[in-house]
Structure of LapA adhesin domain-containing protein:
Amino acid sequence: DTIDTTNLSLSATGSVAEGGSIVYTATLTNAAGSPVTVTLSNGAVITIDAGKTTGTVTVPAPADDVYKDAGKVEATISTATGGNFENLVPSTVPAVTQVTDTIDTTTVKLTASETAAEGGTVTYTATVGAPVTGSPVTVTLSNGQSITIEVGKTTGTVTTTAPNDALTGHAPLTNAITDVSGGNYENLVADKTPVSTTVTDTVDTTNLSLSATGSVAEGGSIVYTATLTNAAG
C-alpha cells in the first residue's frame, strides 16, 4: 500500500456585515470513507459525511453595535478526525472574513439643574447612549466649558455658578452642546437642544443714602447726591 495524502482545507464567506452569518466550508481532496469531524479554532464543528468531500457550518458574525469594530474574523482548523484516510493533512491557512460596520448613530444629550438660587451651583450633565470605549468623549458647551465622559462611563458633569445681583428677577440661564469628539463610535452626534435653569432670587438689600454740598455762600448752589450701594436695574 502506498500512502496517499488527503488534504483538508478551510474557506469562509468573504465579506459579511455586522450581525450577519459566516459560512465555513471544509473541503477534502478525496471523498471521505467515513464521517470526518473538523473542529475549528472558534469552537465550531463541521461534519463531512462519508462519500462527500465538503461540509459546512454557519456561525454568527460579530453583533451589530455602535462601535468601530475589527475589520476581519479569522478561523483555522484545530483538529480533524475520521474519514479512514491513509494520511489526512489539515491546512494551517486561516479562513478570513471581512466584517463591515453597519453605521449606528450614538447621541450625546445635555441636561441641567432645573433651578438654582442666585450664586448657587448649576450642574450640567452630558449623557451618551452607550459606554465610552477607546478614548474619552469631550463635550464642548456654548458657555465655554467642557465635559469629559471617561472610558467605560456614559455620563460626565461640570458645574458653574448662577448669576447673583441685587435686582429682582433673572432671565433663565441657558446652555447647549456645540461639539462632541472622541470615543470609538461609528457615528457620534450631539443633541444641540438648549437646556435652561431657572435662577431664583435671594433677597439682597440695597441702601440709598443722601449727601449734600457741605458749605455754600449765600446765593450759591447746593448739590444733593443720592447714592445706591448697588447699581440700578
Observations:
- The chain has no helices and 22 strands.
